[in-house]
From TrEMBL:
Keyword Transcription among UniProt keywords: yes
This protein's record includes keyword Transcription: yes
Chain segments annotated as coiled-coil in the UniProt record: none
Biased composition (Acidic residues): 829-840
PANTHER family: DNA-BINDING TRANSCRIPTIONAL ACTIVATOR DEVR_DOSR (PTHR44688:SF16)
Record region (Disordered): 829-851
Keyword terms, alphabetized: DNA-binding, Transcription, Transcription regulation
CDD domains the record matches: LuxR_C_like (cd06170)
Biological process, per Gene Ontology: regulation of DNA-templated transcription
Stored InterPro entries: AAA_16 (IPR041664), P-loop_NTPase (IPR027417), Sig_transdc_resp-reg_C-effctor (IPR016032), Tscrpt_reg_LuxR_C (IPR000792), WH-like_DNA-bd_sf (IPR036388)
Domain HTH luxR-type: 846-911
Organism: Streptomyces violaceusniger
A Pfam family annotated for this UniProt entry: GerE
Name of protein: HTH luxR-type domain-containing protein
């Protein structure tokens, strides 16, 4: 007799059957089931059916009929049947060794057990072996234990050391040592599960997975077979899987409507088999397998019943809500209350999908109008934070329900949130209607109404500035856009509601609680607290960026992302990444900007972005254009954008990025149109966005491209008049444009001033453009040493901005008005490493294979390349015109050029590559 955990017994019987087949013995098998224990001769019938002797089945039918008449008073009948059955089983063996193997013999019917005992008592000299397995050997009774020649074997799970040996047998020692502990912890020492884990691990190792043990399909299938081989234990495992961490013997008994002792005994058996550990599943995959064995209707039934049990015990609302969602039954009022609490708690803990499931189920209940609006509002917010595309249909339902009756009883916080939602999706008709709800909220001013009003103003300023014309109240105080306020907000994003205070829409003085109605207090949960901070953070980031306080804006974006990520809000995370990308792009960190904006764009579907899709797209277009990846920039311009986007702040940046792309692709008039439209929009809006979209400078650059320097100069001067209120980068750009539009004799001083402003601001890209113009100015006056030094600083800045030194358009990126392929090629070559520092001034390294120009030839060449005539060169150098002509003849021959335009380009190559100088 073998006693121990069910799976170990089954494994041993499987090995016994294999050995019997190999030795030529006849092995007949049967299994006991609790539900079949009352069927007479059930085990005996299974033994016969397991053989190929189908002729004996007629006898089985007679046994069954006789057994049904069996009673304790008819012992002689039982003895006759037992002897007849024994003879039939021995005839099946046909003189070969006979092995009768019965699994779970504690569930054997009484007549069959008597038959097995009879065979066992007379087995001596008959080459017969009777093997009985039982997880509860004491249930077999004293007759089995008093049988002669009884051998009792207790089988347990393997300890960790033996698990290692088993792994070594089927794998290698090094591998066994690495995964032994994990295998033992997951399998509980069950040999079948250990082998399955090893097979999973070997498969994963071949596919390049990590060194830790893998729980895969082999383990799940083996675990499933272990459960399915014992129906009574399977039911208990299923109940435990439904209950999750709240599983206990009495809850399992209540769920299965059985005795607590039976449930406890079954759990002990599962523990001893390694399938459980202290009544808990050892791995999530094991619980999943147990749940998968349940039919959908059975799981729903058990889940509903388990929810009632846990609710009665006062369990965590999240656990009860999870069961209610699985049961998928329309909840009653108690269920709605639990689902609401669980949704709020899940949102606060970042479990957005679970919160959405709870809210969707609660939405199906028979609710009052206010309760239904509360749930729909929370559902819309949760869906938006996860995937805005799924929120819009629910938003339609919510608006329809509000319109059905007077919206006057809607809390101000809800009106504010609705306004944001419709603006996000560009639904300006709905926005104007919602706006009237906010405007006509009555004359009573409370802390909550003021907070909602201020927050709504942030959304309107960001997404539909024209609505500010009729918005109640005054604009935000000036202090709300400075670096100190941003630092406070950055700190506040990490605080609790009580610590944060009224500054972003919450209570600072406990006495102000009276201003909030009781059923609005749930708005002060961490997830809803985030919304208040989020509204201000978005506005302040843009304001700080426009004023040039990029460092504070960047830190605030980081705090906003951290807070959103903690709550698992994908959409706010994507917006924070996009704003951070925008700030990095403004400072020439194009590589980081592209990475951040690309991640943001991929975070949520394009349709879910609404009008805000222009935020990551504008960064991606502008950054790719700046580094010369025009095909990539075009790819992002091909994205569909809603026309309503151009009525928002986001539209300004998109127009600007598209205009810059048009300039880079030699379409200056198209660029000019985008820049002028930006200016028109800004002039119409009642909000001062400062340097958010410096359209005058952009337009001035386009005017330079179409050879209208007077217009470029006018716009640059207009911008400079505003520059005291603008960041230094804007002033630096304006000064460069003015330098390009002014007379050459005034150019250098303006370029010096431009470079100074841009250095202080830290705008590397614009500084590179200014220094390029300065380098050209040095070259035009023959100051090739300064030109070379300045050009190499330009190259360093371009490298820092992410522009490849070998990029074909590197020259075009920083020089206005010169887009020829030849020029691009020359600057590509000029990016090659310099010659040795020991090369004499005025010469070129011979090892580099470059022509040699004398000092005098360098002076003549640089002046000729700058556009001077031979007579002007002669006057400047105090030599004759004939001498100039002789020098130019030798220069043209040495450099293999035919005219002064080619000479200019060839000199840029020599300056950039060798450091030649005329000084």
């Amino acid at each position: 007799m073998i006693g121990g955990p069910g799976v170990g017994k089954t494994t041993l019987l499987g090995s016994l059957k294999e050995q019997a087949a190999a030795s030529g013995a006849v092995c007949l098998t049967a299994s006991g089931f609790a539900d079949d224990a009352a069927i007479p001769f059930n085990i005996a019938e299974q033994l016969v059916r397991s053989s190929a002797a189908t002729g004996a089945l007629d006898v089985v039918a007679r046994w069954r009929t006789a057994g049904e008449r069996y009673a304790e008073a008819e012992r002689d009948l039982l003895r006759c049947l037992v002897r007849e059955i024994s003879d039939v089983l021995h005839r099946i063996a046909g003189g070969r060794q006979l092995i009768l193997a019965v699994d779970d013999a504690e569930h054997a019917d009484h007549p069959s057990l008597m038959c097995l005992l009879h065979i066992a008592r007379h087995a001596s000299g008959t080459r017969t072996l009777v093997v009985l397995t039982s997880g509860q050997a004491h249930h077999l009774g004293t007759r089995v234990h008093s049988c002669h020649h009884l051998y009792k074997i207790d089988i347990g799970t393997l300890p960790e050391r033996e698990v290692g040996r088993l792994l070594e047998r089927y794998g290698d020692a090094g591998q066994a040592g690495r995964i032994r502990a994990s295998c033992h912890a997951i399998s509980g020492g069950n040999p079948r599960l250990v082998k399955a884990l090893l097979r999973d691990h070997l498969k994963a190792a071949r596919s390049g997975a990590g060194a830790d043990v893998t729980v895969g399909a082999e383990f799940q299938e083996s675990y499933r077979r272990c459960l399915l081989s014992h129906q009574a234990l399977l039911q208990v495992a299923q109940a435990l899987a439904v209950l999750g961490p709240y599983g206990s013997p009495w809850r399992v008994a209540s769920l299965l409507e059985c005795g607590e002792e039976r449930a406890s005994r079954a759990m002990d058996l599962l523990n001893s088999a390694g399938l459980l550990e202290d009544g808990r599943f050892r791995h999530p995959a094991a619980r999943s397998v147990a749940l998968e064995t349940l039919a959908a209707e059975d799981r729903a039934r058990l889940s509903a019943k388990a929810a009632e049990l846990l609710y009665a015990d006062g369990a965590d609302p999240i656990a009860v809500a999870e069961l209610l969602v699985t049961a998928d039954k329309t909840p009653d009022q108690k269920g709605v209350a639990v689902l609401w609490q669980a949704a709020q708690k899940n949102l606060d803990e970042g479990c957005t999908e679970e919160a959405i499931a709870s809210l969707r189920l609660a939405d199906r209940a028979d609710l009052s109008r206010r309760e239904h609006m509360d749930i729909l509002m929370a559902l819309v917010g949760a869906l938006w934070s996860s995937n805005p595309a799924t929120a819009e249909p629910e938003l339609d339902r919510l608006l329809a329900e509000i319109r059905a009756e007077s919206p006057a009883d809607i809390p101000e916080q809800y009106q504010c949130f609705l306004l944001f939602m419709v603006l996000w999706f560009g639904r300006y008709g709905d926005a104007e209607e919602t706006f009237t709800w906010s405007s006509d909220g009555g004359d009573t001013v409370t802390a909550s109404s003021m907070a909602a009003l201020r927050m709504a103003r942030q959304w309107v300023t960001f997404l539909k500035p024209m609505l500010i014309h009729g918005f109640p109240g005054q604009d935000a105080p000036e202090g709300e856009v400075d670096g100190l306020w941003a630092a406070n907000l950055e700190h506040g994003l990490q605080l609790s509601v009580d610590e944060l205070g009224i500054e972003i829409g919450h209570l600072q003085d406990p006495r102000q609680v009276a201003d909030f109605c009781p059923d609005a207090m749930h708005l002060l949960s961490p997830s809803n607290h985030f919304w208040f901070a989020y509204a201000y953070a978005c506005r302040i980031v843009w304001a700080l960026a426009a004023r040039g306080e990029s460092e504070a804006a960047d830190r605030l974006c980081g705090a906003l992302f951290t807070a959103a990520d903690k709550l698992n809000m994908k959409t706010p995370c994507a917006v924070a990444l996009s704003m951070r990308a925008y700030i990095r792009c403004r400072h020439g960190d194009f590589t980081t900007a592209i990475a951040l904006a690309g991640t943001a764009l991929r975070s949520i579907p394009p349709r879910g972005w609404g009008v805000a899709i222009g935020l990551p797209l504008s960064v991606l277009v502008a950054a790719h254009t700046a580094i010369g990846r025009l095909e990539e920039a075009q790819r992002y311009l091909d994205y569909w954008v809603p026309k309503e986007m151009f009525d928002s702040v986001v539209g300004l940046e998109y127009l600007r990025a598209r205009g810059q792309y048009c300039l880079a692709t030699n379409r200056p008039y198209a660029a000019l149109n985008d820049f002028m439209v930006s200016g028109m929009l800004i002039d119409q809006w009642p909000v001062d966005f400062g340097d958010l979209a410096p359209w005058r400078i952009d337009a001035a650059e386009a005017y330079l491209r179409v050879q209208e320097p007077a217009e470029a100069k006018r716009l640059a001067l207009e911008e400079l008049k505003l520059s005291p209120d603008r960041p230094l980068s804007t002033r630096g750009r304006a000064l460069r444009i003015l330098a390009m539009a002014e007379d050459p004799d005034k150019r250098r001083l303006l370029l010096y001033q431009s470079a100074k402003c841009l250095r202080e601001q830290g705008d590397r890209y614009e500084l590179a453009r200014t220094l390029t113009e300065l380098s050209q100015d040095y070259l035009s006056t023959g100051e090739t040493q300064q030109a070379r030094t300045t050009w190499h600083e330009v190259q360093r800045l371009m490298d820092e901005c992410g522009m490849s030194a070998q990029h074909e358009s590197r020259r075009e990126l920083v020089v206005d008005g010169d887009g020829s392929a030849a020029s691009a090629q020359l600057f590509e070559e000029a990016a090659e490493p310099e010659g040795d520092d020991d090369d004499a001034p005025g010469t070129v390294a011979e090892s580099a294979g470059q022509p040699v120009l004398s000092e005098a030839e360098w002076r003549v060449a640089t002046l000729a390349a700058s556009g001077m005539t031979n007579r002007q060169i002669a006057k400047s150098l105090y030599i004759t015109v004939s001498t100039v002509e002789q020098h130019l003849t030798r220069i043209y021959r040495k450099l293999s050029v035919g005219n002064r335009q080619e000479l200019s380009r060839r000199l840029w190559l020599l300056i950039g590559a060798t450091g030649a100088s005329s000084c």
